[in-house]
Amino acid sequence: MNNNGKPKWLRTVTGLTAVAALTVPVLAACNKGSSGDDKTERVLRIATQYYAEEDEYFRQQFTEIFEYNNPNIKLEIVSAMNPNQYRYGGRPEGEKPEDPYAKMKELLNSDNPPDIVMMNFEQLPDLIANNMLQQLDTNITKDKFDVSDIVPAVIDGIKAVGDGKLYALAPTFSSQILMYNKKPFDDAGVKYPTDGMTWDEMFDLARRVSKGDGDNRVYGFAFNTYSSGSKENLFYEMDPYTSSLQLRMFNDAVDGLTVASPSWEKVWTSMIQLSKEKVLPEPIDYSKMDAVRRAAMDDGGGYNPFQNNYFMNGRLAMTLGQQYSLNEVIQANKNAQNIKGYTPIDWDIVTMPTHPEQKGIGGNVYFNGLMGINAKAQNPADAWKFVKFINGEDWARLKSKSVNMLVSRSKYIQPRDGLQYNIKAFTALKPAPVENEMSKVYRQYQNIGQIRSMGLQYFKKAIDGTSTVGDALKEWQTAGDAALKQLKENPNAPINVMPKASSSMMMMP
């Protein structure tokens, strides 16, 4: 979240406004007559959690072109939360924080209910379970709206939540892939990664290409390109590995942790072993890095801006990435002659590794603009018209120019800048299933994330060898049980049960 309470990704505004302005007449021509000859003025209300009526980004991203093509339809953006509520001052001491999702549900059931609801993917199961969304399949069939071109990562993920039915659609998305540098594989005489690998198969490749010492060490894998190699980062970075396993931190009753288990022990053991083998990056010596930077500047030249990016500086064989990660490599390669110390990378991508027990589940898929129609919509016809429009081909063709998001229609997902790489790796895997009950728990207990942060202290003990993995997990479970008891007694109070070593470990990630 940023300081205004909006999700972090909202701060990235792409340069599509100019493109939209140029493309509007084309879309208008394509859709001429789509409004029929009906000149009746009417209102279409769109509910969001944070966007407000005056939010320029939301309108640029989702509504401007529709408004241009449908001047008789007035769009109203209705925010469940006041986006400026704490802008001019923090929340008063003792005031219970509001639940944005609870406020959204109130809005959907209000006397003046909105027609469309924009939601997060983890909220979709609960909205469906409470019969708050209209099923879209009837409209899709009636209008012969083609959804066959929507990529599996989107359509199958949404259908899985709706028991095979569609209650929402998302026009754009982002997903993770495995990006690799071909040189370490060529140097080691090892075959390149392939689509459909398991995590263990990928880790085996990572071990085989890891070699060298000190500053010449080439690492096999990192969860992200800027991994610092620290124990703290590894504790949080391994989320993509654990998310598709659906490892539970606490039980259904939320009165006990479940981390002292063979599954958790296997995960920690695997990560710690990879760290000890130096398959994962070692901690960065920032003082040494500063010295290198100063020396480069003293020589009258610049320094390599990617010196702490193991993948970009050629010292990392494989890493997880997203659409913007590719753009970083593409732009660096195009401008290599202007980047001192940078060598262009010969790269490609494959699907994110999966677990055998969760085949086809790729972990982190983010749906941008996920919208459905309120079951109590006052204007359901125009609501469907809008949902159909932003999920249609014309809209996808325009938005396919984005460097941060991918459109959901496969026809318009193409490699950038005329390059040849495995673009389908982004679209093949479904998101990890949403656990509806767990989503409720995190909304009910505002500070429950602190219990996860407690685990860092015990993970460090295990990786340092001062405790076995099994014993460290048992300690975390004991401390976490006490913390859960506090939460049950006072859901909004900070947790006072602290690990022995340092209260700083209670910080949220």
Automatic annotation (TrEMBL):
The keyword Signal applies. PROSITE patterns: PROKAR_LIPOPROTEIN. InterPro entries: Bact_solute-bd_prot1, SBP. It comes from the Bacteria. It holds the Pfam family SBP_bac_8. Keywords: Signal. Residues 1-28 form the signal peptide. The keyword Ligase does not apply. PANTHER family: ARABINOSE-BINDING PROTEIN-RELATED, DIACETYLCHITOBIOSE BINDING PROTEIN DASA. This is Extracellular solute-binding protein. It comes from Paenibacillus ginsengarvi.
